[in-house]
Amino acid sequence: MTPGEGPWEGRGEGPDEGLGAAQRRLAEAQGRVVAALVAGADPPEGFDPERIRRQASSLIAKRRTIVARIRPDVAAAAGRDLAAEFAAYARSRSAPPPGYRADADDFAAWLRERGRMPDPPRKPRWWSRLLP
């Protein structure tokens, strides 16, 4: 090899372009793994589908436990069906909402849409205290 030549000669890419392409491929592969774990997508080639399914179920169980701690009223409304209801809710979404509080509130709305949870009580307006 002469100075200035490298393994990229003849391919139209320099060392930075080759690294960028590798990073893009890695990001795409990671995106496919995440989609399989949180959105029910097919696992990428080379991954054990059963292990991905078990890990996805574990992540749903973790979210359910935290949601039940944040919103015990939601857990009470779902009752004994909490695990099945939360799994159906989680699988109906393409991705979890950003943060557990949002997840808990979205799950409450999901239950409310199905008649499993009453509407939240209306808070009195501040000015209603001034009325006789």
From TrEMBL:
Residues 27-113 form the SCO6045-like C-terminal domain. Pfam families: SCO6045_C. It comes from the Bacteria. Residues 1-22 are annotated as: Disordered. InterPro entries: SCO6045-like_C (IPR058711). This is SCO6045-like C-terminal domain-containing protein. The lineage of its organism: Bacteria, Bacillati, Actinomycetota, Actinomycetes, Streptosporangiales.
